[in-house]
């Protein structure tokens, strides 16, 4: 039987670019010791107090169907948090609870794009972005950012690609680059969205991981509350990746229709998980700081290691749990470098090319192992890069 074009072309007919990651996992399955600096999975687990609330709620009977839009408690909690942090009036009617941020990204594009519309996204990008847009029936179109601009988007370059576009997807703090978009950048993007009548889909799942500067939600900019869909999640802020609890914040009319979509697709999020999320979001900043602090500390360690050499460059690591390293001095692509590093030192990093072509000649490092092993692995990476650069210079 013939499968639909939509499902068979989610990856655009090519590789998803994660071959190094899959090879590292095969090596581990075969019993080899590999230092994994690949995916954004915390090296700490969900806090026991959150699990205790999840258990209490489940044992109290909140295991049946939950309300599809989300419980009133969690929708009110998310709304209050967003309003406090952004100053934008927000109620439960602006909030849909989703099974994680990925489901929210898909739903947002279903709301913003008709089949055949162009959905814009920025390169480098989180790996699922283009497939998510294609899955919603839209045409995924990348807009390049540049390493020399610290991967801050350029509104003029977005405008050049905006013909036929219905939406623009942005992500700040950014995965994979670790860059936090400036107020100037976001203001230019907001101006562009108003001028071109675009929906802005703002992925803000790393908003609690800011190391330098401040996070600004574009929904808070003038005229943007009615054309912005904000994606949030418990995954990164509270180390609840497996709990699959996220949300969309947007205009009431859009949320009403997105609730209808959820009724026909996900049919909501388990109530005991929502109760645990409500607890976590109101438990104070300490829980969020406990999750964020290891990455803040490892960023400082990385800067110390990188300051002692001059081969590997660091894109400003302002937020999130990643470093984007420039290894172009080695003369290798990010993919070749990552494969060679895995072969020679059993250290697994993600090639920049896994996230598009704008980060070619870079690698992404996840700060997701303990401090000592992380610092040692990064030191080894730098020494390996220096040897390759010397060989390239001698040729």
Automatic annotation (TrEMBL):
Recorded GO molecular functions are: L-aspartate:2-oxoglutarate aminotransferase activity; pyridoxal phosphate binding
Q: Which UniProt keywords apply?
A: Aminotransferase, Pyridoxal phosphate, Pyruvate, Transferase
Any keyword Signal? no
Q: Which reaction does it catalyse?
A: L-aspartate + 2-oxoglutarate = oxaloacetate + L-glutamate
Which Gene3D superfamilies does the UniProt entry name for this protein? Aspartate Aminotransferase, domain 1, Type I PLP-dependent aspartate aminotransferase-like (Major domain)
Q: Where are the transmembrane segments?
A: none
Its EC number is: 2.6.1.1
- Aminotransferase class I/classII large domain residues are 35-379
Q: Which cofactor does it need?
A: pyridoxal 5'-phosphate
The UniProt entry's GO biological process terms, in alphabetical order, are: amino acid metabolic process
Q: Which InterPro entries match?
A: Aminotransferase_I/II_large, AspAT/PAT-like, PyrdxlP-dep_Trfase, PyrdxlP-dep_Trfase_major, PyrdxlP-dep_Trfase_small
Q: Which family does it belong to?
A: Belongs to the class-I pyridoxal-phosphate-dependent aminotransferase family.
Query: Could you identify this protein by its name?
Result: aspartate transaminase
Q: Which organism is it from?
A: Ruegeria arenilitoris
Q: What is the lineage of its organism?
A: Bacteria, Pseudomonadati, Pseudomonadota, Alphaproteobacteria, Rhodobacterales
């Amino acid at each position: 039987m013939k499968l639909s074009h939509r499902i068979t072309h989610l990856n655009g007919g090519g590789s998803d670019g994660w071959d190094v990651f899959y090879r590292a996992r095969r090596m581990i399955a075969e019993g080899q010791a590999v230092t994994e600096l690949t995916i954004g999975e915390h090296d700490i687990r969900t806090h026991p107090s959150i699990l205790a609330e999840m258990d209490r709620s489940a044992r109290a009977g909140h295991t049946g169907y939950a309300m599809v839009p989300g419980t009133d408690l969690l929708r009110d909690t998310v709304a209050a948090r967003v309003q406090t942090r952004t100053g934008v009036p927000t109620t439960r009617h602006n909030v849909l609870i989703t099974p994680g941020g990925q489901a929210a990204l898909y739903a947002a594009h279903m709301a913003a794009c008709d089949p055949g519309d162009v959905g814009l996204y920025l390169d480098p990008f989180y790996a699922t972005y283009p497939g998510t847009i294609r899955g919603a029936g839209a045409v995924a179109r990348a807009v390049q950012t540049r390493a020399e601009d610290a991967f801050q988007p350029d509104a003029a370059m977005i405008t050049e690609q905006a013909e036929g576009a219905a939406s623009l997807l942005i992500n700040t703090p950014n995965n994979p680059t670790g860059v936090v978009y400036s107020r100037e950048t976001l203001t230019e993007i907001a101006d562009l969205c108003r001028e071109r009548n675009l929906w802005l889909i703002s992925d803000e799942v790393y908003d609690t991981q800011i190391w330098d500067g401040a996070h600004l939600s574009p929904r808070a900019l003038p005229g943007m509350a009615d054309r912005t869909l904000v994606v949030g999640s418990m995954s990164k802020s509270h180390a609840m990746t497996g709990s699959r609890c996220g949300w969309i914040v947007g205009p009431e009319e859009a949320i009403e229709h997105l609730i209808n979509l959820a009724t026909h697709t996900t049919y909501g999020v388990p109530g005991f998980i929502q109760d645990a999320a409500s607890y976590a979001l109101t438990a104070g900043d300490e829980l969020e700081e406990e999750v964020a602090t290891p990455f803040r500390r490892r960023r400082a360690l990385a800067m110390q290691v990188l300051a002692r050499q001059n081969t590997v460059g660091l894109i400003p690591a302002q937020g999130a749990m990643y470093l984007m390293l420039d290894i172009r001095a080695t003369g290798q692509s990010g993919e070749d470098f990552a494969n060679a590093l895995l072969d020679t030192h059993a250290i697994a990093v993600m090639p920049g090319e896994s996230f598009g072509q704008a980060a070619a000649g870079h690698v992404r490092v996840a700060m997701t192992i303990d401090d000592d092993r992380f610092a040692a692995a990064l030191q080894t990476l730098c020494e390996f890069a220096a040897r390759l650069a010397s060989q390239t210079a001698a040729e």
